[in-house]
Structure formats: structure tokens, C-alpha cells
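Summarise what follows for lecture notes:
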Amino acid sequence: MKQLNGLWTRPPIAHARSIGTTHRYQPGGEKMKKNWIVIPSLLVLSVVGVVVAAGATQPMWRPLWERVNPPPKVVVDRAMRTQALDTLVAKLNENYIFPDKAKQIEAVLRQRQQEGKYDGIAEGEQLARQLTKDIHGVVKDLHMEVVFSPGVVPPDDALGPPPRTRAEWEERAPLPMRLFASLSDLGVEKVDHLGPRVGYLKLSAFHPHFLVDENFASAMDELADTDGLIIDLRENGGGAPDSVALLVSYFVDERTRLNDIWDRKTGVAKQFWTVDKPGGKRYGGKKPVVILAGPGTMSAGEDFTYTMQALKRATVIGERTWGGAHPARPYRLGDHFFAVIPDARSISPITQGNWEGVGVIPDIPAAPDKALAMAEDLLRRRLQGSAPLAAAGH
């Protein structure tokens, strides 16, 4: 889902603002297979059935549905192009977290318009790609994009405030999304023991806390007897910041301030703290933790990695992460276009910065296919007392 009011997934389930993840469903197997395309947390446009993830957007059930009921072809005419561009410029100036950059983007888009660069583009996805490319020529904000929708895009206020409980979510979520939640592992892909002392937890997303709290508690109960833990986020598309805070809570011994998210519209930064009483057993603040990360670690996945590293609570092994730290939400540009615009930014109270455009830099570089073996070896030697675990940030 992409985060609407909080974090991210590039391409994260039901958030009006997220860090972002897109789910594509295919038939077969005991469960629907998931292909996370990430951007900041999950953003569900329930009216049109779209999940926006940090940088990617895809109707959830479209691949199957369109085989039976193909959508009508939308021909983009001059009026639609003009409306989309004019509204995009207005929404950027009103909402983008860096007003000066919004003005620079406007200047480039208007120049391209005067040059006739958009004239004659009658295919919606092509126009969306071109506008996104031109925006990224000014700012490399990975959560920002223009998206075409064959269906009619709902008004900006169609979703209302994001749900705060599972009951609220179930009242508002469309049937396919509720079905997905009932069948899915909700991002907890694997919980395992790599030998008697080392645990392994693989997460593909950080769905809203009220959907994953029981899954996190069950996983941590199963891993509580291990002496060291590997958390695999190499294919994590992001999600919700409150779920990041929930998971970090298992690895500290006292209440800790983790991240602030500053909102342009309100001018206020919301603070995210650990949860006092997470369900299940705490892992504690002493046992060694290794995080596997790489380019497929996005948005909320990066938030967790960055925060654990900044707290010196984990060693990060792998490659530099994706680099998207600005929570974003969709803004309607017309009947068939919307723009995902970052209107907030993360500020770590520990580093006073974030990972936007840079990514989280691993403590120990490793190729993706070597990272797990390296983490296992490092943990086992650490637990045997023959090798210190590299301190995060060193």
C-alpha cells in the first residue's frame, strides 16, 4: 500500500497514506500469490479498487477481472490532457512538501506543454509515464508519480480518514480486500529456526497494525526462544509506519521515540513511539539482530531498517535500499488520472534526517544471494563468542 497518512510502500492494505505496496493476484496454489511492487504503505482507493504502493499502482483484481470484462478503451483528448496537467500543477503547488521544487516542476511541465510534447498522446498510460518522467527530471522523489486509471477516479475526499481499528476497516474495505486479508499471511512470509539458536523472520510488507498485530505476536512467540534473529526485508514493499513502530517494540526494553512524520498541510510532526505492551513475547534489547536489506527494501521496510540501525539495535547486511522516505497520497487530476504526491516527510529524532534518495546503507555489504549465508555465519560466530557483531553505523 502506499501511505496516505503516514508512511509508505512504493508501489502498502488500507491506508489513505502509506509507504506503499501493490498486490497483483494470480490464480493457483493454496493462497493467492503476491507480487509486491512497492512504493510507501498501502493505500486503498476502495471506490476504484486500487492499491497504491510506493511507486506503483495496480488494480487488485484487474488481471482476472479484465479477462472476463475488459474495460472500455479510454481515448485521451486535448481537453483531458489539459485538465490533467493544469490540475497536476495546482496539486503540486498546494501539497508537495518542497514548495520551491513544485515551482520548478511547474516551469518544466509548462515548457514541455508549450513545446507540444504532450500533443497527440491519446493513450492514458503513455501520458502518465511521460508526465512522471518529466517530474523525475526535476526531483528524484521515488514516491511521486502520475497514474492512469481506466475506471473513474474518485474525489480526493472519497475515502475519509483512514480506519483506526480492524472493525472500521472491515466496514469500509471492498470484498476482494477482505477476502485477501482472510487468506493472506499479511506480509509475514516465513517464520523459521535456522538451527537451534538462530531465528529467521521474512516480511514482505508492513500492513496496518490492526491487521498484523496478531501475526506479529504469533511470529515473535515462535522466535522468542532463539538467541539471535535474522529479519529478511530484501523483498519488502513497505506499508504503514504504525506497524513499523509495533515491530520495533519487540526489540527494545523501554519506551522509545522512533520517527517523526511532518505534514505540510498542518505544519505538525506526528511522533511515532514504541508500543508499551505489544502482543506476544518481547525479543528484548540485548539479543543480536541482523537485517537483510537491498534495493527491494522500500518505504516502511526502509523505515524499520533505518530506525533499527540508528538505534544500534541491528546490523544491516546486503545492499543499499530503495531510497523512498516521503509519505505520499493520491490526488485526483481528472476522471482517469491521479497523481501520487508526497505531502509529508520522515524525520528521525535520532539522526535528524532520513533515507530519501540515499537509501539505508548496509553495515556489511553483501550480494543478495550471499547475504543470508553471511548473516547466519556472523550470528553463529557471535553467539559462540568468536566474533563481535558489527555495530550498526560503524
Remarks:
- Confidence is low (pLDDT under 50) at residues 1-62.
